[in-house]
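[Automated response] Your request has been received and processed.

Submitted sequence:
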Amino acid sequence: MRSACVVGWPVRHSRSPVIHEYWIKQHGVTAAYRREEVTPDAFADFVATLAERGYVGANVTLPHKEIALVLSEPDDRARAVGAANTLWLDGGRLRSTNTDVEGFTANLDASVPGWDAHLDEAVVLGAGGAARAVVCGLLERGFRRIDVINRSLGRAEALRERFGACVHPYHWTAVPHLLTRAVLLVNATSLGMAGQPKLDIDLTPLHQDTVVADIVYVPLKTSLIAAAQARGIPTADGLGMLLHQAVRGFALWFGVWPQVTAELRALVEMDLAR
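Generated structure:
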C-alpha cells in the first residue's frame, strides 16, 4: 500500500486528509493518507526517514515549509517561493515543490474563466509565504506589474528583491489609489480569518470587471469576498485554492490525476462547518 501524510505542528486542523481520502475512494486506489504531528526539532529526522516510515511523500504545513525546502531537492517553483509544501521520493531522492502556486491560479481558472485576459496590474495584500506563492503564480501567467502591499514596507521590498522589477512594494496607505488601476486584488494575509483581525478595506475604487481573490477559507465567505460579491465583482475564495493545490501531490504519490469536483468541495465545506 502506498501511503502519504500531512506533516505539521500542530496538524489536527488540516483538511488534507478529507481531500485525499475522497480521491483515494473515488479512484479505487490502494493507498492511505494520515496526519503526522511533528515538532520542529524532530522534522529533519522525520523527512529523512519517510521511506522507513512507509511513506512515498508528504504534504508540509506550518511551521515546516521553509526547512522542508532546505532538506530536499526543490524544483523551480519551490525555490522561487522559498518554501516547499509537497515532498515525494523519486528513486531514493527527496524532491519538493510548492503547489500553492498552481493552486492559486487553477482556482482562478475554475472560478473566473478568462480572469487572465488582461495582465496589466495586480494588487497583492501581504508579503509572507502565501504572498510569495501568489506573486510567483502571477508572474508565471505574465502579469506585467504586481503591487505588493504590506504594513512593513521592508517585507514588501524583499519580494521585489526576490522576484524582480515587476514587483512594486507599497505601504498600506497606497491601497485606495492602487485599487483604481487593479485588474486583480488578492488578499494573501490572514486578515479576515476566524480569530484574526478584520480586513478593513474599501472596494469602492475597484472597477466592476476587477477580480477579487482571498486565500482565507475560514470563514468560507470572508468579509472581502462578501463585499466584492455585493458589488457584483467576480471572486475566487480560499477553499478553491486549498482544493486545487492538493491535486499534484496526489498525482505524484499515487499515479492518478484527480479532479476538483463540486462533491469534494461540499464534503470539505461540511467538515469545516463541524
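Summary generated for your ticket: The two ends are 30 Å apart (CA to CA). The longest helix spans residues 129-141.
If you did not submit this request, please reply to this message.
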